[in-house]
Amino acid sequence: MIAEETINTRIRESPLISRDLSWIKFNYRVLDQVTKEDKTVFEKLKFLAITQSNLDEFFMIRVGSLINYIDYGKQRMDYSGLREIEFKRTLLTNVKTFCDDQHARFIEDLSHEFSANNFIIQKDLDFLDPKSQAKIKTYFKKTVFPMLTPMTFDTHHTFPILMNLVLAFAVETKIPGSKDKHRKLTFVQIPQNLPRFYEIKIDQKLVFIPLEEIIRHYIDRLFRNMDIMSVNLMRITRNGDFTLEESDDIDANFVDEIKSKLKTRKTGRVVRLEVEEGFNKSIIKNLKSKYSIDDLSVFKVPKTALIGYTGLWQIVGNEFFRDKIPSLKAPVLPLSYPIDDDYTIFDVLSKKDVLLHHPYNSMEPVLDLLEKSAEDPGVLSIKLTIYRLARDSRITAALLKAAENGKHVAVLFELKARFDEENNIKEAQKLQKAGCFVIYGISSYKTHTKLLLIVRKEKRGITRYLHMSTGNYNESTAKLYTDLSLMTTNEVYANDVSEFFNVITGHSQPSDYEYLITSPHQMRPKLIELIRNEAQNARDNKPSGIVIKINSLQDKEVIEELYLASQAGVKIRLIIRGICCIRPGQQGLSENITVRSLVGNYLEHSRIFYFHNENDPLLYAGSADIMVRSFDRRLESLFRIVDVDLKNQLICNLVYNLKDNVNAYEMQEDGSYIPTVPSNGTKFNIHEEFFRLTRQKINDSQLFEQS
Q: pLDDT of 87-98, one tens digit each?
């Protein structure tokens, strides 16, 4: 085993930062929102819940993937320079520190604010008044008790399969008067289809009693005439990472294979065991043996904390507090066209391109375009790529209506959208039954691009209406994620998108596009070409500069080109919300590279690429991050912005991202992040400023010129 000092030295000296260690830093930035004085306790609880859902997914996918390598004897080298075993130790040690901080925020920072905000989380039922206790007892007897199923493990009963991310009790019992060696172990899972908290109003306060504490209080009802030796709360996390095998018969086998793989998430290998403080040590030893895990995978949770904070959404979304939770909501803005039968979205787009910036601009124009197309007699066909949909989606309803009205509807449904697979299968099959032409993904590639093409017959001839986006066709997340979308009838875009649909629905390989950059074949080489062009301009003493706003930066080849461009003198400003594997500001390597991350009330989801190009900026937006998966394993697209006004809007967007001093964190050479502080006391919060921003022409391109 490598010494701790050697491991830390390797991590510090590597020119690349570990993807997974960088992710932990990102989740710390989310956790930091819990400490913000300007946020209400409900907003803080929301961010704590987000850190938990982030962490659960991280264990299922990233830790699950690492465990796969170890279990199957496969080798991998992390960007930190560590092999599998050493990296697992480093990673899980760091995660444990994060979890300790997560619990500390709940116990030390949040719980003291509950009472002042008219609610409490009450774990001990004995502190409640008799009337409240009677209500809880009735709830347990009538609702909870019939749902509980004790599962004993002994020589006559196999070890039960506990569900992923579901709380459970491990209960030790014995027959009264018998010896300790006759103890039996029984598991009781907490019903997952009941609310996490039982709610009761006491003295104008809302009291939230964790469901597990109600069951714990009455656990003896399940073990009549037995001595209960210990009651231990736990939760397991199973490996959710799976790889689909390629199949020549996509239509026949693909959906069934997806469904089969989804089942493995329910019974997959255990990668984490969470136990409450004071958990019976002999049971932990037993569980470690059964699940083939070591102490690194066992996470102890303080009694005053919670196992799993995602249940806090029940408090955040409670109607009792509706008027007490200030949140940034998109104002009701007038659309850029009147809603009537004489002047429609088709009229608007026939005259100009429209760039929408969500959630500051409503997604309504996009939905309106689809819904009007479904009814419009002139519309001949609709083609669309779908990655994630909202529940009860208006998108699906519009497509069903279009098919009902006899229009040709072709939909590429990505069934491999992680954790949305089941919903996508259901929606895709619904469309297929209605007569839509549905493509279930493209074998080994995940379709992540967001494209819409509508063909309409008009007096002037055939017009193609397009929508290209950085975000999903999901009206729910459009209110929470910052995204960009372009609506246009420009024929160059139309030709490119038509060709791309032929690639993903048929058997075509166009040599090039004019306004699109696509993966898996073109994107990495094209981005490297654009970076090298800026590097050459810098060497020739010409103006140069690169500004990129993305979610994640991980691709080694592009990072190396950014290092070379920095060494050539190109000023490179990166705005990266999450994972960042580049090491900024290192003398001789990356002194011209800065990295900042924005984490706030909205999820920064838009991707923008700016290249100075000798005072003639090239700007792209789209669905792709700078990730190996984006370039090699996904169908992605970046669309070039050519309209001068829209280019200025994107430049303004980047300027605002670089000016923010409320939501921003500056990345240091060692991979840590420091929150920005207003230098003159003046705050600039883009999530507020973008709401105030009107559609005026703003040309701040000079800010990106090399000085």
A: 999 999 999 999
